[in-house]
Every structure is written in C-alpha cells, then in structure tokens.
Amino acid sequence: MVLLMARPTKRSRSSNRQFRKRVPADVLNVARGQRISFSLPKTHLDDERILVSATVGNEISFSLRTGDISLAKLRHSAALEQFERACAAYRNGPRRLSNQDRHALAGVLYRDLAAAFEDEPVSAEWWRIVQGVTEDAANVPMPTLTRSIEGRKPLTIAGPNENRLQLLERHVGPFLDAILVREGVIADDGQRLELLEAFAKALIDVAKKLKRNAEGDYSPDACAHRFPKWDNNSPKPSQSLASLTFDDLLARWEKESEKAASSKVSFRASVAALAAHLGHKDARQVTRADVIAWKDALIDKGLSAKTINDS
C-alpha cells in the first residue's frame, strides 16, 4: 500500500527545502496572480514567526528557508494548513468585515507579537523605530480637493492618498496578509485601507508595549483588553493537518479503495505495526529514515523481502 503525502521538496543548487503545491482549478480561476502570505514558525522552540509570500499560479511554491529536515517539515505543515484555509476562503468568496471584526483581527497581530517578544523584546530602540515608521505611514495626511461654488461654502472632497496606502502596504501589509491567510479570510477589496489602518494602530500599540518591556516595565498590559475577541466563522479545511493520523489516512484510503475487506484488514494490521514501531500515530512525522528503519527491523525478525513488500 502506498500513501502519498505532501512533503518538503529540495531545489537543485540549493540546500533549502521548498514548499510546492498544485493550486486547484476552481481556486486558480479566482486567485491567479494574487499573492498569499504565510506565517511560519521560526524555530521549534518559540512562537516567533517568519513571513513568506508567493504568487498564485498553476502551483504555489516558495523556499522554506531552511535545509534542516525537521524544521522544514514543521514549516511545510504550517504552510499546507494555511494554504488549505486560503483555498477554502477563496471558494467561499470575499467577506465584508465589520468594524469589530477588523479590530479583532488586529488584536490577533497584537497578541502574536506580544507573546513572541515580551520575554526577550530585542531592544527599546528597535521598537521605537517600529513605532515611528508605522506612525509615519499611518499619519500621512489625506489629500483634499477644495473648490468654491457660487453662493456656497467651499466644498472639500477627501480621498485616500496613494502614498499613504503604499506606505501602509509596505510596512503593515505583510502582517495583515499573514493573519488573513492564517485565519482563512478573504476580505472585501474595498476594506483594504480600513484593515491596514486597524493593523497599523495595533502595531503601534504593541511596539509601545514591547518598548516598555525592553526597558524593564512589565506592568499590566491594559491595551490588550481593547481588542474584541476574534470569532472566526470562515470555512475550515475538512481535515486539520495539525492532527493527521494513520487512522485518518486509512479511513480515506478505505473509502476510495476497491480492495477486498480482507486486504483492508491486512493493511490496517501493517499500519498498526508501523505505529507500534514508531511509538506514535502522527503521519506528518514519518520520514524516509523511519520507514527504512522499520524495514530493517522486519528483516531482523526473519521476514523475506516479498513478505515485507506485500505487507
């Protein structure tokens, strides 16, 4: 029995592993050319993240930025789950977010950064720079067009400033996109500026908090309570990749397979033996080396190559 699983691939002339996934045709029809940002774990040990983005084409691919197999698998798993959430969101179509929704999503960013950096907040100067750059982008004035109408007061028409939008996209957009993908949300295009502004305010607030932490001030964080709870009712992937077990894979295979019942029982016994050898049932953790070690263990028990291949 062969169970095919998505896994990190290796690029020629590069030691880094790569994420590659074919984009379903129905998603490609609505998302081609758009960029998706992924929030990936920086290490095995903490909550700090790295942001990676890629353009939607027939397939989506990007470097996992590590040659370490274990870390690459961790990042690949996170990217795959976010990719499936994004596909589900594209199928469901754009959502119009309320003001409360926008600030609740901004609160996700606030809490993520606070949790990742409050123990070791780099330096006060670093967060002062983050605060200043974001404030500069958020505070670019809106342009006004003023013209007089005979017998009336001057009419002022305000519109979004392209430079302001560009600055917010540059400094805040990657944070916004990563949260939207992770939460499986495709926002209405007309709300982009409002979302960027909400996220900019959250980024400024968390920079102030982390600057205080870097200076040794760990007094209670009153600002965290201003954010509403994010209640995500976006479509979820049918199977959480965070808990993909051998039993899950077997259930899918049995549903699609035309094998006899006796063969299915035999396959279940083989997979149970593999799980016992590994000491776990997490299909995501199985490596080529694990399978080779299991094969060697079966040979040591005196099983023939034919018996092993048939099991």
TrEMBL record:
Gene Ontology biological process terms in this record: DNA integration
Source organism, top-level taxon: Bacteria
SUPFAM superfamilies xrefs: DNA breaking-rejoining enzymes
Ranges for domain Core-binding (CB): 244-311
Single GO MF annotation: DNA binding
Entry keyword Nucleotide-binding: no
PROSITE patterns for the chain: CB
Keywords assigned by UniProt, alphabetized: DNA integration, DNA-binding
InterPro entries reported in the protein's UniProt record: CB (IPR044068), DNA_brk_join_enz (IPR011010), Integrase_recombinase_N (IPR010998)
Keyword Iron: no
UniProt protein name: Putative recombinase protein, phage integrase family
Organism: Candidatus Filomicrobium marinum
